[in-house]
Design a protein that fits this description.
rod-shaped, 247 residues
Length: 247
């Protein structure tokens, strides 16, 4: 190699010796220069072309801020979700109940007389039929929402007293208002003597009607086997309970 080295024939030339370490240093220096070059290029590009990255960064920042601010509402929604479902169920049940009330309001009005009447003629006649003694006959009776009047004929005072005692226990009659207005007696001559016997013959009884609730009426009508009224009263009770529940 020295044989072909003509460095000595020229001035200003330095001798070059190959070493691996120096080559590595030169390569590393070359790579550092490339990185610095790329950094400078990137920096210049970022500084001179903000329009390319500023809008996406701004949008991402706004989206991140919205997500942060929505954390608390999201937690509240999760916490109240069960209450919301419960409210919806109750609201649906309330809507169904209201529809039932509206649907059956005509029935309620149609049978409202059952509620307003203290005792109708049928129920009054039922109690009267059970109370009249065998030796007494009914001539006439009238009844309305306020009171009643009975005209009957009896053979003796015991029959009259028996009827009055029974009527005092009627649930549909106010006992303090029960009165015997008059008793008309009829003279009868004895067959085997000249004596006369005064026997009570015709009497008039009046009184006031006592208001009974629907549950009591229902039981009384069941005893009379009047299933038509039983069904009507039962429907009325269900409608009233449904209305109370909604309120």
């Amino acid at each position: 190699m020295i044989k072909y080295n003509f460095r000595d024939n020229y001035q200003g030339l330095n001798e070059w010796n190959y070493t691996r370490q120096k080559a590595v240093v030169q390569i590393q220096s070359s790579e550092d220069g490339i990185l610095v070059k790329y950094y400078k290029i990137s920096k210049n590009f970022i500084n001179n072309n903000k329009i390319f990255y500023f809008p996406p960064i701004t949008a991402a920042s706004i989206l991140l801020l919205i997500n942060i601010l929505s954390i608390v509402p999201s937690l509240n929604i999760s916490r109240l979700e069960s209450d919301h479902y419960e409210f919806e169920e109750k609201e649906a049940a309330l809507t169904v109940s209201r529809e039932k009330v509206v649907t059956n309001v005509s029935t309620l009005m149609k049978h409202s007389k059952i509620i307003t009447d203290g005792a109708d003629a049928f129920l009054f006649a039922y109690f009267l039929q059970l109370s009249v003694p065998e030796n007494m006959q009914l001539t006439e009776y009238t009844v309305d929402n306020v009171g009643f009047k009975i005209i009957a004929s009896a053979e003796d005072m015991d029959s009259i007293n028996s009827l009055i005692q029974i009527m005092l226990k009627w649930p549909i009659v106010k006992p303090e208002t029960l009165k015997v207005r008059r008793i008309i007696t009829q003279q009868q001559s004895g067959q085997f003597s000249n004596s006369t016997i005064n026997t009570p013959s015709i009497l008039e009884i009046t009184g006031k009607i006592n208001i009974v609730d629907l549950s009591q009426k229902l039981e009384y009508y069941k005893k009379t086997y009047n299933y038509g009224f039983v069904k009507k009263i039962d429907n009325q009770i269900k409608l009233i309970n449904l209305t109370k529940t909604n309120n």
